[in-house]
Amino acid sequence: VELVLPTIRSAVEKQLNLIAQGKANFHQVLEHTLDIFKRKFHYFVDSIAGMDELMEVSFSPLAATGKPLSRCGKCHRFMKYIQAKPSRLHCSHCDETYSLPQNGTIKLYKELRCPLDDFELVLWSSGSRGKSYPLCPYCYNNPPFRDMKKGMGCNECTHPNCQHSLNQLGIGQCVECESGVLVLDPISGPKWKMACNKCNVVVHFFENAHKVRVSAETCDACDAALMDVDFNKAKSPLPGGETQHAGCVFCDVVFQDLVELKHAAMKHPMHRGGQGKRQGRGRGGKGRRLGGRQPPKKPKDKMAALAAYFV
What we know:
alpha+beta
């Protein structure tokens, strides 16, 4: 209790004044003050059990709260989702807690697992009009690659061949921010969309299409990834009743009227240029595309995945 009272600080200040006046030795005062704090620290550590008992009268233990959601990659038991802010996942068997993105909903993502650590993926969503992305609870808290930071989901993961990573679902540079990449939301159909992995730009396209895929090919004009789209036969915009088309969402004449940016804060429209032809995206008219995309391959293990990435 004394640590939060002004008496400790006042006593230390008196000793400092004596040092300034030459009436006290600096090293003796320092040693005496540190000894006081050390003794108090050991006292609190020894009394932590009593503090826990006091808290349990009003609060439930973390392991006793929440509901089972996804499996831990270490013990393969279910982790509990603690919905109260800050929302998080807790594995009672491993006694580890994993932070999650806030201000959205969290649910299990098709029982799919991260190829690096075997944790089940979860899906964060800000709502039907917002954006969503999957994430690995372990990678979100422990970035697996040097160019990643804590708090990044699968839409920012640089894994070379994971089907959920930026390398496989990234389409091109964001039309608004400098560092963001527009990433396909693979479960947004039939109201398909792609969203920036840095800012809140969301682009809606190809509504009612059966299937939308990111191609390994890139656009010659803007370097964005081409899109392979299977349209609904009854609502196909293609001539002659065709249902399949591949092209660039920014440059293709067929796609230009099927792409809509629903973002109130946008300063300029998505469509640029005339005659049904778009100029390049972003600043300087040149988009950015992640190079070297290969067909998805499941890595043999974590070390193999890391080796494949750095080589």
